[in-house]
């Protein structure tokens, strides 16, 4: 059973930065593709970024390209999401997810395990 625990969310002003972390346990982390998703009030959960199991490929939603960076540290079983130039529309609960088959996907249904999420609020 994989456990994913997100941290690093909080309240930040527009233009600021946050770094989210997702610590994984209970599984061989290095074989998982990892993804970050977010869900704003009244909206569906949406793909933000993904990273392949060996970190040689990263993927981003158009809305965050150039501002967010996903990375992973297999020695620490942790995936990160560095978020810069934050905007009020980035406000959401952010979730990490793991996918142990295939490749990174933007579909929520493709992921096997999910964390409980961390709230990010960007004030204008």
Word description of this protein:
It is a single chain. With 124 residues, the chain is mostly beta strands. 0% of the residues lie in helices and 49% in strands. It contains no helices and eleven strands. The strands form two sheets. Strands 2, 4, 5, 6, 9, 10 and 11 form a seven-stranded mixed sheet that branches. A four-stranded antiparallel sheet has the order 1-3-8-7, with no helix packed on it. The mean pLDDT is 94.
Number of helices: 0
Spatial gap, N to C terminus: 40 Å
Shape: globular
Structural class: mainly beta
Pick out the low-confidence regions: none
Strand content: over 45%
Concise description?
The chain has 124 residues and is an all-beta fold. It has no helices and 11 strands.
